[in-house]
Amino acid sequence: MKVCDNEEEHAQRVKNAKDGMPSEEQIAEMGARFKVISEPSRLKILLALSGGELCVEHITEAVGGQQSAVSHQLKTLKDNKIIKGRREGKNVLYSVSDWHVLTMIGVAKEHLNCE
After folding, report:
1. Phi and psi of 92, rounded to 5°?
2. Backbone phi, psi, residue 29, to 5°
3. Which of 52, 54, 109, 115 has a 20 to 30 A CA-CA distance from 43?
4. How far apart are CA 22 and CA 41, in angstroms?
């Protein structure tokens, strides 16, 4: 069974698809990044941080969680280099370190209104 009437065009399309494909390592890294940000409580934290720096107390209040759970999710986000923290007195202020993640979240948020 013939898939494409024009074999040359088919071969070129396959070549273009392969040429644009990231390495296996890069694909795994992309998947891991999506997995980290797709967890609902981490996604809420990132949405809260999209407005700027917040301390744990303010993040906990914004997302409606328990401080211990929020701290655990912040560690995961920090370990994956999605957020960063800086000490200011007794507090650690968290902010987004990978703004590409906020772009992806923004696109997903916009997509909610698509039909």
Report:
1. -110, 125
2. -65, -40
3. 115
4. 29
